[in-house]
Q: What sequence folds into this?
């Protein structure tokens, strides 16, 4: 009985190229998956790129606290003020990056998925809608009354 030769050690031809391998890995890890979050921007609903920030840290390290992250590349005071309402659930980081991909700011969910993006002047109404959708009302604006026992 003769056996057909096996393809051991060889995958499909597309995997034998760098681009093909990257595409297969991205698909397996879910990096090429896009959730429909109702925003037409290509990055919204995708895993956030692992930006190298100006302080030499990477975005992935900033997401390890399992909290939302408002990443502001332009040091926009209005975004800093806006983030103040969600400090118990969202971290605000103002930092440049090695390559911002033409973005000014992003809101990233704790699972690393981009929920909102600003390329030019930030649409604060859209940012508030995204913050409320994923992190609730801005309850950090006031201190709840405490009962003394």
A:
């Amino acid at each position: 009985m003769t056996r057909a030769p096996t393809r051991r050690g060889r995958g499909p031809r597309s995997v034998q190229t760098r681009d093909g391998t990257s595409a297969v890995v991205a698909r397996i890890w879910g990096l090429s998956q896009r959730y429909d979050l109702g925003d037409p921007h290509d990055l919204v609903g995708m895993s956030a790129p692992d930006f190298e920030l100006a302080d030499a840290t990477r975005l992935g390290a900033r997401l390890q606290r399992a909290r939302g992250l408002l990443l502001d590349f332009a040091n926009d005071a209005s975004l800093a003020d806006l983030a103040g309402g969600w400090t118990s659930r969202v971290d605000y980081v103002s930092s440049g990056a090695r390559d911002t991909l033409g973005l000014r700011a992003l809101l990233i969910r704790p699972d690393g998925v981009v929920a909102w993006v600003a390329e030019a002047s930030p649409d604060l109404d859209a940012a508030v809608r995204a913050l409320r959708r994923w992190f609730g009302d801005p309850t950090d604006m006031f201190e709840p009354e405490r009962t003394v026992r």
